Amino acid sequence: MKQEIVAIHSLQHLTKEILELTFISDYLEANAQPGQFINIRVDNDFPLLRRPFSVFNADGNKISIVFNVIGRGTKMLSRKKAGDTIDVLGPCGNNFLSFMDGDYDTAVFVAGGIGVAPFPFFTKRVKSNKKVVTFLGGRNKELIIKKGLSDVKVSTDDGSEGFHGIVLDLIKDDFTKNNYGKVRFFTCGPTRMMKALADFAKEIGSECYASLETDMACGIGLCQGCNIEVIGGEKKYNLVCKEGTIFETKTVKL
């Protein structure tokens, strides 16, 4: 990984609630993989801690992230403009491609809200011999992003787009209508959603790999602040930023 000061190329709204920020980095173009994240220092003075963002897309040396405004840091980020600079550290963590090989027919991507962030880049790099289907869930249509995704099926809590209900109910309904063969799940989103998906995957005998969402102040394992409890491992805890962010769900306590 590398720390660098990068220039912002553009900032645009994908929906009313979600923005896409694109910056220039030759280093990340050459080194970033789907599922990895970058840790951004929004300002030199405040907030002090960096904010982690999955790589949303890489188009040449144009690297994109997506976010919604939920606090002071993301609000400051939403006010950036082309030509401004930000301090980025990355790429950090492991990547989804490391878990692609195996005996299964369909890769099922499941994202909740802004958890969609790693999947357009993953879709772009997915191996050609794997079928992909994508399930998206959000509170409403303003939290649904389909850009860069494949075979997308949508659920919203309020019914404003697609299936009216939670994404796991959409998956269960869809699986009764379509034969995807043996599947492997890849997911990112709220912990409750990922745990429910992990339980469903176990029930049907499928593997599930989750990119965990947590506060990661340093992004490199120094601060020890992003612990996740391990199931049946040699040690009690792993660090999400260092050993993850992607874990097979049967190996950690969600």
- State the domain count: 2
Please give the count of helices: 6
Structural class: alpha/beta
CATH level 1 name of the largest domain:
Alpha Beta
**CATH fold type of the largest domain:** Rossmann fold
The geometry reads as: globular
CATH homolog superfamily of the largest domain: Nucleotide-binding domain of ferredoxin-NADP reductase (FNR) module
Q: Looking across the biggest beta sheet, what order are the strands in?
A: 4-3-7-1-2-6-5
Q: Give the distance, in angstroms, between the N- and C-terminal Cα atoms.
A: 27 Å
Residues in helices, as a percent range: 10-25%
CATH architecture heading of the largest domain: 3-Layer(aba) Sandwich
Overall residue-averaged pLDDT value = 94
Biggest sheet descriptor: 7 strands, antiparallel
% residues in beta strands: 25-35%
User: What are the secondary-structure elements, in order, as H or E?
Assistant: EEHEEEEHEEHEEEHEHEEEHE
The count of DSSP E runs of length 2 or more, i.e. the number of strands, is: 16
| Low-pLDDT runs | none
Instruction: From the alpha carbons, calculate the radius of gyration and give it in angstroms.
Output: 18 Å
Summarize the structure.
This protein is an alpha/beta fold. The protein has helices spanning 26-31, 72-78, 119-125, 167-175, 191-203, 240-243, and strands spanning 2-13, 18-24, 37-41, 51-54, 57-59, 62-68, 85-92, 106-112, 131-138, 152-156, 163-164, 183-188, 207-211, 227-229, 237-239, 246-248.
